Amino acid sequence: MQQHRYSALGFHLYKCYSMLCFVSSVPNSFLRSNSCITCCRKKVRLFCTKRQGAYNSSWIPFVRWEKTWKRSSKRFFMSSDVVTTKKEREETPASKENGVGSSMESVGKFMSSVEIREAFINFYRNKKHISLASASLVPEDPSILLTIAGMVPFKRYFLGLQEPPASRIVTCQRCIRTNDIENVGVTKRHHTFFEMLGNFSFGDYFKKEAIVWAWQLLNTVFEIPAERLVVSVFKEDDEAYNIWKDVVGVDAKKIFRMDEKDNFWSSGPTGPCGPCSEIYFDFYPERQMGSLEDDHRYLELYNLVFMQYNRRADGTLEPLKQKNIDTGMGLERMAQVLQRVPNNYETDLMKPYLDKTCSIANIPSYETASEAAKVSLKVIGDHIRAVVNLIADGVFVSNVGRGYILRRLIRRAVRHGRQLGIQEPFLKQLAQVAFSLSREAGLVHVTNNQKLIERELETEELRFLDVLKKGESRLYEILEMSSKTISGSDAFELYDTFGFPLELTEEIAHEHGKTVDVDSFHEHMQQQRVKARASQMFQSDSAVNNAGLPESLYKNKTIFEGYHSYQIPHSRVTLILDKESLSPVETASAGDEVYIALDHTPFYAESGGQVADRGRLIALDSSVPCQVAITDVQKKSGIWLHLGKVKAGQLSTNQLVRSEIDVDRRNQLRIHHTATHLLHAALKLCIDKSISQAGSLVDTDRLRFDFSSPRSLNEEDLRQLEDVINRWIREAHETQTTVMAYDEAVQKGAVAMFNEKYEANVRVVDIPGVSMELCGGTHVENTREIGLFKITSESGIASGVRRIEAIAGSALIDWIRKRDAILSTSSSLLHCTVDEIPDRLQALQTQVKKLQQEKQSLQMHSLAIQCKLMASQAKNIGNSCYLVSMLDTQDADQLRSCTQQICNSLGNQAVVALFSLWKSEGKFGICVSVAKDLVAKGLDAGQLVKQVMQVTGGRGGGKAAFAQGGGKSNVDLQRALALLEKTCKENLEKINHI
Predict the structure, then answer these.
(1) Any idea which of 89-98, 209-218, 325-334, 515-524 has the lowest mean pLDDT?
(2) DSSP 3-state assignment of 876?
(3) Which of 247, 372, 518, 579 lies at 20 to 30 Å from 417 by C-alpha?
(4) What percent of the chain has pLDDT over 70?
(5) Annotated binding site for Zn(2+)
(6) Pairing mode, strands 559-560 and 515-516
(7) Pfam families, alphabetically (predicted)?
(8) Can you give the pLDDT at residue 548?
(9) 855-991 belongs to CATH 3.10.310.40
């Protein structure tokens, strides 16, 4: 196409039906501050050009038109090469230049983000890779909270612990990292949520293919010229260097040898590792080669990791038997280059969020926003992408773990919204952009959970707006009481009690010339996390699941036959591990507790919320009778590990055993597991079809089901759920199990857990017309086997997450008998019949309430007498008086009330300070009240309290007329009393000129 050396005219494009028409001119003053105009409402983008700083005022074609009609997204992209003079390039700082340096000529093929994804996937499909959908942001790896890289879902394949579905895989993996959250919105390319394109090889191709294909992809598919690319290799990796130089043909001057810090990847101090090679985009190829650390000039596009070594404990490297390839290409970065924009935030992945937020905040455009506003706009845009995907993957707001990360991201977005002047909830509106872009990207599970995501966002946003009101009030109280630094405990109180972010506490403190003891805050945070982790340990996180077990174990997978067999006549013991050390042993004798691996087993291993089977192993070829009681079963990478105690005899590896499960226990587990499916279906039917499972427990004595819900369930809701479930039980629906392809199951309507990772083929448990779920658990063959279903409790366990506990089958009979026994005992103690218990309890409550009122009345009368006596002990100084004394009360409200009453009774020139000792709590309290005439003369109750706090080490403060404080009681209160009395006396003498 002919290239015109003309300047662009500013204009709007208007899309009417399928035609574009020019409708109005845009002022030149607006154009001078904008290299890109976006008409979001009509989904039309114009890249404008400038020549020697001037814009033409006549209708002249763009420098170079390049049109792409994206039918799937119905967007029309128009771009041009920017023509600038050498003088302009020299005068423009790198940080202010557009995303492709001094010229947009020859940077690559213009592509939308959808096209980039498709092009990458299709390229490697043609290289015999299988394409896998993005794994959940919640990884299987218990050592990390979130999926932080494209290789995370394949870690077990890289470590050789699990067989991959193919030796060549390609993905576009959604990732989240929050370690650099403070840089988000400040730099061009920092994000919490991003998409990583990657191709992987497990023992198949290696360096040559990985390098050649990467270059071919960039050159021929994305059409990025060779002169725009430079590469780096590990300084000792001559093989990679020679491939780049001799096979690919890259100029040696453009191949950088880097040290281990930059170009050597490892999974930890030991384990698989290897050199890597990185491909960078050069924004200024016409300049002399510079340092790769110049991130204004060089942008890392593609990282190729060659896993070829195993690092031993002594630090030495040994070649791996299976060499692997792990690569990563940031979608946002590639979009920045190919879409010719200044930064990642102005790509079609992010710009719609900025434009929508501008609309909500009444900002004319992102381009005209202040620098501070741009930062907030980018933070909001980044965070809304992250939170929408986190909730879609089953993460709910909480104060620990992933839930805390989600809460922090939502609250940061809201806070930056307030900085833009947005006072009302807005995240639900902004999430619509995420749903639209997710639909284009094929992220079905995001759009399918739209209602759930909107509800979670709205609930947390409203809660945080309320938190801001309450927290700010408490923060200002703390600011008044603090001298120069807010203590870590105070900052943690704001966070833990009010949900107040530390960074917001720091910002407001800074505005008041104060700092926050951040180290102390983090100490409190760490203590909380330790407690949280300790309280939330499940059996599935047991030592055996986190241990590095012998490699030989993984060669022989366990075959599970427990769906149809409760006993296996001949199972072979393949491995015995000591319970404590987890080291292999050849034999186990009576009294030993060990983990036992079998080649075939009927035992169900704990998973999917269902607890493990119990039973026994009986040795078949032992001269001495040997029996092992199995109490738990865990599975690790396809191996069933049975925890058992040898009751008699001796068990050896390779020995044949008869394995038997406790059938009665299994039957009750089957009943409760199928009941959870019925409960899930009933919740969707009766309460809200968008309800999704957030967790479960299937045990013998009860079932527990956690689910997303914006509100608690009332008695009528629970009664309706029970009625529906018991009707399904009476209708005797058959349960059908089928193994089918995952995609086929989802298409048929099977419900999947979004934080679960599924294989290509899945097991579907179908109760026709009632429920269909992906599930590997054990179930009844017919719903009539459940017998009866009863909900025992409903409660909230986290923001937007409710919990129902219930009982069914024989466990329900036991529960009814226990309740009958309780009722019988209660009626006996209350001397009434069971039917009369409610009336008798109500009568007792009325009597107790009356006695409490009488007690309170007597206490108030006694306190009034105390106050009157104490007022008579006030000491006069001129026209003023003061009282410093101890008050015998255990109630802080009474201390406060009595202090003010006495001060009021003594007139307009009195100051009263009362202490109380609360022995049961090991604390003391103090209140100081100053009459209005003395306040006018400069006496300040807050300052008096602060003086006491300096002596006692407590905390306190307030206003001039009234202040309070307190601390631990193991201090010299008599000294504090004497100091306060002296201070009051001196102040009154000064006021009265004595």
Answers:
(1) 89-98
(2) strand
(3) 518
(4) 85
(5) 673, 677, 775, 779
(6) unpaired
(7) DHHA1, tRNA-synt_2c, tRNA_SAD
(8) 52
(9) yes
